[in-house]
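Researcher: Re-running this chain for the archive, since the previous output was lost when a drive failed. Same request as before.
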Amino acid sequence: MHNLLSLKFIDTEQFQRLRELKQLGFTNMVYPGAVHSRFEHSLGVYWLASQCVEKLKTYQGLELGINRFDIQTVKLAGLLHDVGHGPFSHLFEREFLPQVISGSDWSHEQMSVDMVDYIVDEHHIDVDPQMIRRVKEMILASSEYAPPRSSSEKSFLYDIVANGRNGIDVDKFDYLLRDCRACGLGCNFEFRRLLETMRVLDDEICYRAKDYLTIHKMFVTRADLYRTVYTHPKVKAIELMVVDALVHANSYLGISSNIHNPSEYWKLDDTIIKTIETTPNQELKEARELILRIRRRKLYQFCNEYPVPKDMLDNYKKVTAQDIVCSQKSGGVTLKEEDVAICNVKIDLTRGKHNPLESIHFFKDYESDEKFTIPDDRISHLLPTSYQDMIVKVYAKKPELVEAISEAFENFQLKTYGIKAQAHSTPQKKRRYNPFI
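Model: Regenerated structure tokens:
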């Protein structure tokens, strides 16, 4: 019965759409193996959610009162948690929509919830309304828009798919392992160990104290993926170009026009790029040229980057193209804001500037019912004392402007921090543009 209900959702055009959404967007342009989709990720989270709740039922089922309704609810939440996701990984909601809709607060989690309702109605799926309500609450559990829960019982179930309490959830288990494997990277985080040894105390999933470093590895693996894969300089260059192309094409194609309408939104996927590329209309000329540049590897040129000094993070204000242009010294080529592209990249361990392990409770052994947190200094003095990086990346949209933008970027750092925060100068061969090379 459980599998039959899940298949009723899987075998819909709305869920099958996830096959057309690459999990990592354009990362495969740098890491060719990264072609996995939201579809397989969703199936993976479905399976891991099932494993997690089944293990809790096996070891603590009578004590916790876990029943078939709970198991199916958690499994459906895992299956459907990304059904409303936008194209190109998180680029759609974080980079594109804010440029075309002022003050946009659209989120893929909220659209996933709306899409669940639409699928149930459109395909006449016979499912308990209370189950669907709890599925939607679980999808939104880690979102800033999480609604009040319909029940205060069994709160630990809400931490399995999207954990707003401390960030340990099966969604991360799946994408960390899947992304590392697809990109050819090693992954020494062992999630199976956590699934086997976790335990619920006081309505919260807790972990053995000896697994502290295993959990720390999970957060570090995520941060490493952000630094080396998700925000790779070439990946970000391509994403900046795609955002510009989507912005140019939006008024003609209405890309953002149905973001609150599930009946039309589900038709939007990664193939919008092919639509732009092959539609001959004059209105899409600028967008087409940007896609053609990506195909021919004539990307925005990475000039340099720097990490914001640690003591400046609390009062950090996003760097803009205007900041760089205004830092240009007189003489030489005159820069314009449209010549410069900026990425303000935040990398953390899921809890901003705070240590995520401070929110996690541990237990000593299975004979003990006491849960507790573990301070860093009780584990190792080698663990980090800072849990967040803010990295500013600057790009030239035209290769002949690399030198001027690089110099303006250095001037901005000196003016803002009194030092050049970047690790090294922009290589001379990038500064000296030769159109014949």
